[in-house]
Amino acid sequence: MAPSNPQWPNPRPAAAHRTLGESLRRNGVSRRGFLKFCAATASMMALPPSMAPAIAQALERARRPSVIWLSFQECTGCTESLTRSFSPTVENLILDTISLDYHHTLQAAAGEAAEHARETAMRENAGEYLVVVDGSLPGLGANPGYSTIAGISNYDMLMDTVADAAAVIAVGTCAAFGGLPKADPNPSGAVAVQDLVKDKPVINVSGCPPLPMVITGVLAQYLTFGKLPELDEYNRPLAFFGQSIHDRCYRRPFYDKGLFAETFDDEGATKGWCLYRLGCKGPMTYNACATMKWNGGTSWPVEAGAPCLGCSEPDFWDAGGFYDALSVPPGNTGDTLMMAGVVGAAAGIGAGLAGRKLAKSAGSDHKTVTVDELEQKL
Amino acid sequence: MTEAVLTRDTGAVETPLETPLETPVESFSLARGLQALREEMDAPVASFFSSCVHCGICATACPFYVETGDPKYTPIHKLEPMRILWENEFTLWGRIKTKLGWDKKVTDEMLAEWEPLLYDSCSMCGRCSMVCPVGNDIQYMIRKAREGMVASGHAPEGLVAASVRAVKTGSPMGLQWKTLDVQIKHVETSSGLEVPIDKQGADYLVLLSSMEIINFPEYLEAITKIFAHAGVSWTLSQQCFEATNAGIQIGSKDIAAALVQRVVDAAAALGVKNVISPECGHAYTAIRWEGPNAIKRAYPFKVFHIIEVLDQLRAEGRIKTEGKEDDRLSLHDPCNLARKSGVIQQQRNLMDLVAENFVDLKEHGKYQWCCGAGGGVSSNERAEELKMAAFKKKKAQIEEVSPDRMVTMCATCRTQLEEGLEEYTMDIPVVGLTELIAEHLVESDEERGVRGE
Amino acid sequence: MTSMDFLMLTKGPLFQLAVAIFAIGMLARMIEIFALGRAHNYAAPRGSAMAGGLRTMYKRFHTDPGTFKAAPFDVVVGTIWHIGFIVALLLFIPHVELIKSTFGIAWPALPNPVVDAVTAITILGLLAALVHRLSHPVKRFLSTTEDYLIWGVTFLVMLTGYLAYNRLINPYPLALGIHILAAEIFLIVLPFTKLTHIFTAFVARYYNGAIFGRKGVQS
Predict the structure, then answer these.
(1) Which in A150, A262, A329, C32 has the greatest CB count within 10 A?
(2) C142–B293: do the CB atoms touch at under 8 Å?
(3) Is the residue at A2 inside a domain?
């Protein structure tokens, strides 16, 4: 088990009664730093800057809600994304303001004690706690043995935990859309959380992994307004997923001018031209990477010279090669053409011979037009 | 069958030809017409019908549409029955549609409706074939479609009559050798030259057209003079003097073959190496291009239009001329000669020889406009009004350059030009190019001596 | 169905299906044409049929002055939108990538804004062509349901491409999916309609040129 973080509050229900503002100050976050965070959050959510004090006020007063984090068929990348910070950032601290009562990777407790913590949190915060899920899970009808925790199938644990939850946040593309486990041929019968949870609000925070700020931003929004954010057709918060990578990409002017890198080491790549021809899925990908960037705003894949993989979109694993342009269809069109060509040739020869025979037999049946026949017409 | 008809018909010239009464007379029918159309389907036809996008450009090239403004005269529309048959029976998709009962059928009524479109309003000038953006040779298909029309009994009466006369009398106008003989005597008297008849081993067999013999006897005198001048060995044949081919016009390869076979037999009988088609457009395409295919074998002789021969003589320096016409002359290229046979430069070379003031019509050569009378239109009395309507395009072309006289080298075109110009009271005489050349020949002392000067 | 599902359907199985129908249909059509063959020509040629045929395949791109004068609208608008269609099809970078992935051959493409402008002009050209078809007596007379249907299919391909490129339909996977679907409809109907002229016009031109060329006329 991971060593317990000294700043990490013990999963004691009592901690839930401390307000967020108190918690932040205890952790040495200045008022100024806190307001900056609120302003950033407001802008991320496309709210006017005047809303920042309201967010701050709301957050200050917010009770630390209980959060149960379930990890199913996942790679821990989402957790890594959330926790990998170089210094205690505001994002990091906002985590301190929730009562993370159950999290495999991060919690100190193990075995039955861990499961007990989950059950306690569920009981004490019934109807109020949030469930965060990362990873997909074997769906109904699939072999549940592909993924179990403490002898409990992922399905049972999810349905049991979600039963009294206020809402579910599916973090990462696996939880949101099935992700890598669901990729063709999907051996474990993996499904996304929203495929199973129908009676609770599900917020999808997709990405492989999702941006840490997006995870915390969604939590902040929930804490601020006490309600779920506006969602897109995939139940993703519009505030973060409303615009495509392509529309916010700093390399977009090169696309518009028709300047493209064609290999990873050509002139275009050196000059930072558009990566469309190298397989960038930016035009069809909706995420906030281009504006929020990664590693504390240091850089993001396209800036590092890598085409966007489209990781926040459903089935991105099966949407064609990562390095094939967006317009290239998955599957082998050349083979289809060859096979169709053979069938077409056969059909053509068949039809052609029939037509030829028709014309030829008309020729051999030809009845000579005679002058007497013509004369009869006069 | 064809052979029997052919051999029986050859030889008899003075009297009407015997008819093959022993064969039971088949009757024309829709089924036979459709079968004839099926026979005509080939790769070019399939590619043409596959390519039409209904753009209507062909209409702008057709004098019958241009001068009437009636969209039903759009060339490709004239082929609709043939296209329907092609689609129904010669395409996979069409066969599926036919099986499902979604096909449109070609009926006898439809063919009857299309008869005036295929005959009265089409001179098979081929101008549409030159302009179609996708490359459809519409004229090629019209020729084929007429096979179906004949076999289904939908050929116009005028053309049927001409075909019957051509096969039975040897001339579409019913003209007989004795009429020609009178002309020959007349030419010999006026020129003092001999018109060779049935001369074995002559270099050239000269054919004539009935229309020429009746309307333009000057032609025979002109070639008699020119050939004497140039020292050409030539002959007429009593066995076959007629070059025209009503079978090509009505659209029956059987009738065409019967008529072409007479030429082939006459050439063989005299052992000539070359056959000269007269100043007639369709006669040339009939013998030069369609004939060998109608009889299904290559000729043992070459075929020339008189203009080709004259230009060759000119190039060889065998024609010496003096003086030039100084009035403004323009030229009408017969469709069959220029666009459909590639004889375009030759007539211009000859014009340069005898004309000081020659001006070409704006669109000439392969893009010239039809006079409106070709393709059997002039033999089809019913088409008279359309024929004169179509002439308006030619008239406009002539008005554009306002010549003093028009020169041409096709008796049908010449007749149409004369009639048309008269109808519109334009005082522009029309002359044949061969005559014009003959008028400018330098006479040698010997020739003068013969004529007693 | 989400927009991504739709895009994956159109990019995946539907695309393969459309390509297969197109290839089967078009190849069958071509073989069907050639199988009919031509009768042997016994007449002595004046010129080369093959040279004439090959020349006419190209030369019909140039309109003769008489036809230009008689139908300037057809020539200008027809040329513009045909060239626009071909430029958008063959010189747009995403399309070049598609061709490269399918056939392994590629060629230089045009900058996106150029293709965008060409597409806009082509769309206008197609609209003008439709108005002309509805108003010109010969065109209206000749036009069948198929002619209007094919106009629609062609127009939709261009329009949806324009909308997708300019991101005027959201989300983008939906826009792209609609465009791909329009292209698939185009491919599927191609072998069974007058769209075959894309290929057969060259065959027709060859035969036309060969028939005339044999007689010594460059058609």
Answers:
(1) C32
(2) no
(3) no
Q: Is A165 helix (H, G, I), strand (E, B) or coil?
A: coil
Q: Locate the chain A residue with the closest alpha carbon to C31.
A: A348
One-letter amino acid identity for C142?
L
Q: Give the CATH architecture of domain B30-151.
A: Orthogonal Bundle (1.10)
Is the distance from CB of B383 to CB of B119 less than 8 angstroms?
Answer: yes
Contact B372, B416 (CB under 8 A): yes
What whole-number distance in Å separates Cα of residue B255 and Cα of residue B248?
8
C12 CB neighbours in chain A (<8 A) are: 329-331
Residue A361 located in a structural domain = no
- Is-contact A168 A228, C-beta < 8 A? no
* Residue A345 phi, psi (nearest 5): -65, -45
Residues of chain C positioned with their CB less than 8 A from the CB of B341: 46, 215-217
Which of residues A318, A348, A370 is at a domain's end? A318
ipTM, two decimals: 0.96
Structural domain that includes position A157: 13-241
Q: Is the CB of B150 less than 8 angstroms away from the CB of A355? A: no
Of A234, A336, A359, the CB nearest to C19: A336
Fold of C3-19+65-214: Fumarate Reductase Cytochrome B subunit (1.20.950)
Domain ranges within chain B, ordered by starting residue: 30-151, 169-314, 321-439
- Say how far apart CA B227 and CA C94 lie, in whole Å: 72
Give yes or no for A365 touching B (CB within 8 A): yes
Contacts of B302 in chain C (CB under 8 A): 44
CATH number at residue A83: 3.40.50.700
- Written as six digits, the tokens of B125 are 């000038």
Subunit contact B28:A377, Cβ cutoff 8 A: yes
Tens digits of pLDDT across chain B (453 residues): 333 333 334 443 444 444 544 555 558 999 999 999 999 999 999 999 999 999 999 999 999 999 999 999 999 999 999 999 999 999 988 999 999 999 899 999 999 999 999 999 999 999 999 999 999 999 999 999 999 999 999 999 999 999 999 999 999 998 999 999 999 999 999 999 999 999 999 999 999 999 889 889 899 999 999 999 999 999 999 999 999 999 999 999 999 999 999 999 999 999 999 999 999 999 999 999 999 999 999 999 999 999 999 999 999 999 999 999 999 999 999 999 999 999 999 999 999 999 999 999 999 999 999 999 999 999 999 999 999 999 999 999 999 999 999 999 999 999 999 999 999 999 999 999 999 999 999 976 665 655 554
| Contacts of A5 by beta carbon, 8 Å cutoff, 6+ apart | A106
Portion 259-298 of A in contact with C at CB < 8 A = 259-260, 276-277, 283-284, 286
- How many domains, chain A? 2
Provide the chain C residues 98-137 that lie in CB contact (below 8 A) with chain A: 98, 101-104, 109-114
**Nearest-angstrom CA–CA distance, A204 and A213:** 14
CATH among 2.70.98.90, 1.20.1050.140, 3.30.420.40, 2.60.120.620 for B169-314: 1.20.1050.140
Strands A137-138 and A190-191: antiparallel
Q: How far apart are CA A190 and CA A75, in angstroms?
A: 14
Count of CB atoms within 10 A of residue B240's CB? 26
Domain ranges of chain C: 3-19+65-214
d(CA B250, CA B263): 19
- Please name the member of B77, B91, B303 whose beta carbon is closest to the beta carbon of C32: B91
Residues A212, A81: Cα–Cα separation, whole Å: 6
**CATH code linked to domain B321-439:** 3.40.50
Examine the domain organization and report whether A206 and A173 are in the same domain.
yes
Question: In chain B, whose CA is at the least distance from the CA of A364?
Answer: B39
Looking at the domain assignment, is residue A353 inside a domain? no
